[in-house]
Amino acid sequence: MAKKKVRVGLIGCGGNMRNAHIPRLQADGAVDLAAVADTAQEPAQLLMEKWGTETAYYTDYRKMVRDEDLAAVLISSPHSTHYAQVRYALECGVHVLVEKPLTIGARKARVLVDLARKKRRMLVVSYQRNFMPPHAYARELVKQGALGRINGVVAYVTQHWGGGKGWRMVPELSGGGMFMDTGSHLVSSLLWITGLQPVEVSAFMDNRGKDVDIDAVVNARFANGALGSLNFIGSASRHDERLAIHGAKGTLVFHLHQWGIREVLLNGEPLQVPKRVAEDTPDAALLRWIRNGGKGYERPDFAVEVAKFTEAAYKSAERGAPVRMRQ
């Protein structure tokens, strides 16, 4: 049976949209790319070349959403613009996939998740690790109690992170540096897999002479009494990432290097992931949920917790003192 065509619009035509999302949409084979929106025509033209056909181009995403009969929009734009773009699309009755982080403010993140529920639209935040089989199965194991009570987490992510010369280095557009950007993936994985609820954070950050943070260390206390220590080092030579989850009955350790999973260990042995836990992507998931009426969809409440954690960490670094989080 042929897949149902899904009519999609894109907001933001930069490298991430062209090199990450476009191949996933092409792999689906039944996406009708109706229109793209970007304030600059050059990246839009490059995207159309990558897609293989010309499509409608808008400088104003609002006009695109109003004029085109879209089922969904994908958003890959500066972090500070996410809130307005996601909100407008949801209010117009369109499903949304947005790049991480959902927003640069916790209250705004909550508003968007609640609005999606009110409008009965799906809102997907593009945290790719949450769609990888080892991460998805690890979450199942934690929920089933295979690790017992979670007592501690230790994690780090490193990268040669400079944000280039673009908007990531502009605080008003990015909302922050390495911690807000790449670091958001690690925070998301931790909170999504474990279900831990942070109640207090203490952070140290170093901008290394830039306008945004490059290196950060964040310590956390969770509602169940668990403790965590997370490092985000953007002044490293390359990407490396580990997440260790320690419970009363067992330990899970993830190791990613140069953006690929190297190994996942359960109590020191390679994690055996059942075949039923298939490889997935945020884009493929959204398209599947649109076609099946939302079967299997889960609201991104965890993204609100990520925003709360992130906001508290920046406040702690600024104040030089721990920050308690509102529940």
Could you give a short description of this structure?
The chain has 327 residues and is an alpha/beta fold. 35% of the residues lie in helices and 29% in strands.
List the helices and strands and how they pair.
Layout: E1 6-11, H1 15-28, E2 31-37, H2 41-51, E3 56-58, H3 61-67, E4 72-75, H4 82-91, E5 95-99, H5 106-119, E6 123-126, H6 133-144, E7 150-160, H7 171-174, H8 183-194, E8 198-206, E9 215-222, E10 227-233, E11 235-247, E12 251-257, E13 260-266, E14 269-270, H9 282-292, H10 301-319, E15 323-324
Parallel strand pairs: 1-2, 1-4, 2-3, 4-5, 5-6, 7-10
Antiparallel strand pairs: 7-11, 8-9, 8-15, 9-10, 11-12, 12-13, 13-14
Helix pairs in contact: 1-2, 4-5, 5-10, 6-8, 8-10
3D architecture notes:
With about 325 residues, this protein is of the alpha/beta class. The chain folds into two domains: about 5-130, 3-Layer(aba) Sandwich (Rossmann fold), CATH 3.40.50.720; about 130-275 and about 305-325, Dihydrodipicolinate Reductase, domain 2, CATH 3.30.360. The protein has ten helices and 15 strands. The strands form two sheets. A nine-stranded mixed β-sheet has the order 14-13-12-11-7-10-9-8-15, covered by helices on one side. A six-stranded parallel β-sheet has the order 3-2-1-4-5-6, with helices on both faces. Helix 4 (about 80-90) runs parallel beside helix 5 and helix 6 (about 135-145) runs parallel beside helix 8 (about 185-195). The model has no long low-confidence stretch (mean pLDDT about 95).
